[in-house]
Structure formats: structure tokens, C-alpha cells
Amino acid sequence: MAGPLPLGDPAPADGLLPASAAIGADDRAFGVYVHVPFCRVRCGYCDFNTYTADELRGARRSDYAGQAIDEIRMSRRVLEGSGVRSREASTVFFGGGTPTLLPTGDLVSMLGAIRDEFGLVAGAEVTTEANPDSVDRDDLARLAAGGFTRVSFGMQSAVPHVLATLDRTHDPERVPLVVGWAREAGLDVSLDLIYGTPGESLADWRRSVEAVLAERPDHVSAYALIVEDGTKLARQIRRGEVAEPSDDLEADMYELADDLLAAAGYEWYEVSNWATRVEQRSRHNLGYWRGDDWWGVGPGAHSHVGGVRWWNAKHPAAYAERLAAGVSPAVGRETLDAATRETERVLLTSRIREGLAIESLPAAGRHAVAALIADGLVEARTALAGRLVLTRRGRLLADAVVRRLLDPVGPS
């Protein structure tokens, strides 16, 4: 299970938002995230808010869809009661956990509730995450028939010993099968990879990226492994059972992936994400990076509307109890001040290919751009055109770039 929820102010029982949340809402896209907190096994590296069957303690997986639908219905009342104009959802994303551990009918029912309460824009992007061993051909066909447009498979690696270290349960041979079934159903396909696993060599990583390219997915995500406190992997590293990931090797792996993906026609559009075409970029995740609005449904889910951020009770049983009592599942929230919103805007927008308008930076940040170009962290041509876009070296050092934009006189 994940660590503690963030500190913040108590959320009101009715969930109503301050009046500031409605300001400018018409100019922001609206998405819905549905957190499905169930996993068959707990991966050793994962600190997400997820639960195996023996960790549910009074909650039942079979009850979850109805509880999530209750929150979806409540969400519309909360937004309307807070003066936030109703908007159709442009994206819906089912994440977890493993959403496809639920019956397909449950996922379709939750999507139906979102459609009933908010509506979906024409051509809305509707994604579910899935493990390669959590769906079959019929499941994928039913998801497509029920309104899903996209599936994101947690492949992580094509190398058995790397999957074993990550506690992943699927056979790499199954990935081509599920990709084929998804395409047969008319779904767009994303494949997700993790690099930097203890014991993974550069040759292992090349094998995984080449296995992805052999499937020609529409979209690829590749994330560096982060060792989170409290996880099984962190304990193994602390005991010396496995080696800690190497920053230098991870940088080599990122560069190799970027080279192979670019040669195959994939373009980076966010530090860890590539797509074959602009239309195949994850619009839902772009909404996070651009500071749009989203409602997060489910235990531990986070939401954001107009600079107000809140989070739900973590455990499925506590989440269910609050909904059964007719109160908001939100247990804490924060209203971001102008300085925090600006910091987050720079932090998030600088990660995407469209980059930042340099004129939108404070004077000190604008003055830092020349040095960032000289250091090879920012593209010179786009900077001359008025936008700050990271070079590949800049992507590897994105956090350092942000620090220099926000604190140009501080340590680099």
C-alpha cells in the first residue's frame, strides 16, 4: 500500500469547492480519472494505492463499481453546487491497480455513469490500463463495444529475469497476442516500459525496446524505475540482495530508447512518452501537464479543479463507508496560491514538447534561458522563436532546468 496522504486542510463533508475553482473553467478541458485499486499480486517496486485480496479488510471488489458510480453522481452535484459550469469530459482514464481485474461490464457501467452525468465530447479519448495477463480477446472486444478507445498495457520488459525482479506475472510471449486482439477490436494501443531494474543490462533494455517496436504500438511510455521507501524492492536494496539502480546506466538506457524510437518514427512529446502521430498522444496525461481540470474517482484518487486539489480516503473500506453515509469521500484538500501554481506550471509545461512561452517566465527565468542554451539543455532555434523546449540532455536533467528557471541565482 502507498504511503500517507499529503498534508492539507480537512475537506468539507459536502465536498463543495471554494468560489475560486470556477474562475476560468470554460477555458480548461475536463477529464475523469477512475482509480481501480485492485491487484492480483503486489509488485515489489510499486507504492501505488493498491490492494490484493487479503488486504481489502471489509471491502469487496464486487461492490466497487456501484461505489464509484455513487461518487461520479456526487461529483456532478458538487461541481454544480460550487458554481463550476458542467463540461463534457474530453478524456477518461481507468488506472490502478489493474482495472481489468474487474469484470468488463463493471468498467463499461462506470464509463456509462460518466457519460450520463457529464457527457463525452465527440471523439473523447477513453483509456484503460491492463496487464497482458488480465484480458483476453473477448474482454477487449467488449471494452471497445462499450465505448473504450484505447488500452495501455503494462509490459514493463520483454526479458524474463527483469520481469521476475519486478514481480510481474505475465509471460512476454503474451504481449503480441493482446496487442493483436486490441487492434482487432479497434482499440489504440500503448505499451509501457520500465528501465533501470536491478540486474537489467543495456542489452536487456535494447531487447525490450525492440520487442515494443516489433508490435508497432501507437504510443510508448518508458519510465525510469524509482525505488520508493517502504516497498519490497527498497528493502531488498537496503539488505544488499539486489543492486541499486545506476543513474548513469539509466541515462544510457533513456538515450538508447530515444534513438530507437526516433528511428522507428516515434516522436517524443513528454519526457517519458512517445507517439507515432500527434493524434496518438495521451490527451488525458497532457491534461495533467497543462493544468486542466480533472475529477479523480476512487480510493486515494486525487482531483484538481481551478487550483483546488483534493484527495479521497485511501482504503477501499473507508472510501465505501463515506459514500454509504452520503458524505464526500474527500478527506483533505489544498487551494494553491499564485506562487505554487506558477511553480507547477513551469515544472509541468517544461516537460512537454510544445514547451513554455519564454515571455510567460518571470524576468529572472527569462534571463536564465541563454545559459541553458549554452549548456545544451534548451533548443536554441525554438528559444529564438519564443518557446523553451528541452533538448535530449535537457530531458535527462529536466528537474535541474526547472530549478534554474525558478531560481536562476541558486546552485545549478
Automatic annotation (TrEMBL):
Entries under InterPro entries matching the protein: Aldolase_TIM (IPR013785), Coproporphyrinogen-III_oxidase (IPR034505), Elp3/MiaA/NifB-like_rSAM (IPR006638), HemW-like (IPR004559), rSAM (IPR007197), rSAM_sf (IPR058240)
Keywords for this protein: 4Fe-4S, Chaperone, Cytoplasm, Heme, Iron, Iron-sulfur, Metal-binding, S-adenosyl-L-methionine
Keyword Hydrolase: no
Superkingdom assignment: Bacteria
Keyword GTP-binding: no
A GO MF term: coproporphyrinogen oxidase activity
GO biological process per UniProt: porphyrin-containing compound biosynthetic process
Domain (Radical SAM core) ranges: 24-267
Major subcellular site: cytoplasm
Location of this chain's protein in the cell: Cytoplasm
Pfam families, sorted: Radical_SAM
Xref: Gene3D superfamilies: Aldolase class I
GO cellular component, one term: cytoplasm
Record's function text: Probably acts as a heme chaperone, transferring heme to an unknown acceptor. Binds one molecule of heme per monomer, possibly covalently. Binds 1 [4Fe-4S] cluster. The cluster is coordinated with 3 cysteines and an exchangeable S-adenosyl-L-methionine.
PANTHER family: COPROPORPHYRINIGEN III OXIDASE, RADICAL S-ADENOSYL METHIONINE DOMAIN-CONTAINING PROTEIN 1, MITOCHONDRIAL
Family from the record: Belongs to the anaerobic coproporphyrinogen-III oxidase family. HemW subfamily.
Protein name as catalogued: Heme chaperone HemW
